[in-house]
Amino acid sequence: MIKFFLNKFSKIFLVLFLTILVAELTAKIFVHLGLLDKGLPAWVTLRAHKDFGNWHPKNITLDLEKKNCWTSTVSYNSLGMRKTSENTQQKKNNLKKIALLGDSMIENIEVTDGFDLGSLVQKKLKEYSVHNFSARGTGLADQIEIYKNLIKSNNFDYLFLFLTENDIDNNVNGYTTIHHKRYDVVDNKIIEISKDKEFFDNYNSKFNIIKRDYFLKFKKLDLYKVYLKFIYIFDVKKKETKLINESKKIKKFELSEKKIMIYKKIKNDFLIEMDKNTNLIIFLNARPHIFEPDRSHDYKKEFLVNNFFKETWKDNVNIYDPYLFTKKKLIDLDMYRFPYLSMDCDAHYSPTGADIYSDFIKETFLKTVKN
């Protein structure tokens, strides 16, 4: 009887093994033919987070691809932060520490490890230990939570806060997702919208954790890309389409009275939360609109948002605009033409853009410290 069951089990195992082998070989053919991407989609690096809005998987390296645009290798450490160098964790304890805090521009997943913005800041400021706490899609209110939970208690000497135009929208009700911090104005009073408990209960269910995180262990298999394709078609694509349709109805980057009220409230909350022993330095974004604000209606609005940021923060902290520095660099390199520091197919920093912007960060910071 035992022999019968062993034979039965062996046959089932053999059939299962051969099925997976054939499926994997078929998936490799699909990749070779271009029917599947060589890398993983960027959305596998994001996790909805009850405090931070968005965060990342931990202790993992992922090969990513945006089809016909970019490929990159991206690594996250034990806290879910993007790594800034191979030896960051081995640095001497007596080095002063710098925390980088921003959104997708600073996480910079479009550029491979070692050449991304955070890694370049680390390489160019070798006498400091640089840690990148940035996460895509976060606004300033979400970043306050990242600061409170991951940065504040670790006694950082400097906090580099990066402002992008999206910040004017990212924590306003109706402009962001249900897992981010959201505020609205009712009867001229700012109210916080509670996060959706039902969403997080479902998102963190055992089934979804297995589907999202356990299967990620098979990331090296091309068969995993087939699985992701199905997830995209039946789940992610619907959400993306919904967000695109909703975005068409809203006025992004508009400096409405409501948005101004909410942003100023969040800014004040951030300053209250700041450790007085940590030096706060603010950097503005360097995307194409700063060179050609009249190129499109959105560029013009983003340009005005940046001016609003400068006016709003100037009495509280040093805030630095990369315009003159990056313009000179681009002219010297004969690159003074669209899309400047970004890519034709993606508005985030290219490898060259990250290099130039990190030069600005380095030189600005060292001048600030010297003074």
Whole-Å distance between the termini? 84 Å
Q: Radius of gyration over alpha carbons?
A: 23 Å
How much of the sequence lies in strands comes to 15-25%
Uncertain regions: pLDDT < 50 for 5+ in a row? none
Question: Order of strands across the widest beta sheet?
Answer: 6-5-7-10-11
Structure description:
The protein has eleven helices and 13 strands. With 371 residues, it is α/β, with parallel strands linked by helices.
Summarize the structure.
By secondary structure, the chain is α/β, with parallel strands linked by helices.
Q: Keywords, please?
A:
single chain, 371 residues, alpha/beta, two-stranded antiparallel sheet, 11 helices, 13 strands
What order do the helices and strands come in, and which of them pair?
Layout: H1 2-32, E1 47-49, E2 53-55, E3 60-66, E4 70-76, E5 96-101, H2 104-107, H3 117-124, E6 128-132, H4 140-151, E7 158-163, E8 182-186, E9 189-193, H5 197-203, H6 206-214, H7 222-247, H8 257-273, E10 279-284, H9 297-313, E11 318-320, H10 323-332, E12 342-343, E13 346-349, H11 351-370
Parallel strand pairs: 5-6, 5-7, 7-10, 10-11
Antiparallel strand pairs: 1-2, 3-4, 8-9, 12-13
